[in-house]
Amino acid sequence: MLAIRVFKQDELPSEASSHEFAGELHGGVGACVIFVDAAPGKGPRLHRHPYIEILIVVEGAATFDDGESKREVRAGEMAVVDANQTHGFVNSGAGRLRQIDVHLSPKFITEWLA
Q1: All residues at 6 or more sequence positions from 39 whose CB lies less than 8 Å from its CB, including other chains
Q2: Which of 5, 79, 85, 93 could bond to 60 as cystine, CB 3.0-4.6 Å?
Q3: Contact indicator for 63, 54 with CB cutoff of 8 Å
Q4: Largest CA distance in the chain
Q5: CATH number of the CATH domain containing 62
């Protein structure tokens, strides 16, 4: 039987406003997770992935952009982005945006569009 593996968010590799768990680097887990902690006005520009992504807003508010329209998503809500769907988001609240993004792939694959 395999033991449960525990990872501390702040010990994962970090980008500008996030920590990232890449499943392929941790025993071939079939998903990747980004722990977002973004200041107001911050977030990734338009991009897409060849797999589904689930974005869960834990604290604050984010405005999601699909390249044609925008929609605000608040704490307690989540968005599901289909494979190859253009998307990006920005922290549109006054405080921190804390969000968990689940990529249904063992590795991150991102095509930046803007």
Answers
A1: 17, 91, 96, 97
A2: 93
A3: no
A4: 48
A5: 2.60.120.10
- Asked whether residue 3 is assigned to any structural domain, the reply reads no
Residue 2 lies in a domain: no
- Structure confidence by residue, pLDDT tens digits, 17-57: 899 999 999 989 999 999 999 999 999 999 999 999 999 99
3-state secondary structure 11-78: HCCEECCEEEEEHHHCCCCCCEEEEEEECCCCCCCCEECCCCEEEEEEECEEEEECCCCEEEEECCCE
For residue 62, which of 78, 82, 83, 80 has the smallest C-alpha distance? 78
DSSP annotation of 6 reads -
DSSP symbol at 5: P
**Cβ contact 95:58 at 8 Å:** no
Whether the CB-CB separation of 44 and 111 falls below 8 Å is answered with no
Total number of domains constituting the chain? 1
- Range(s) of the domain holding residue 64: 14-112
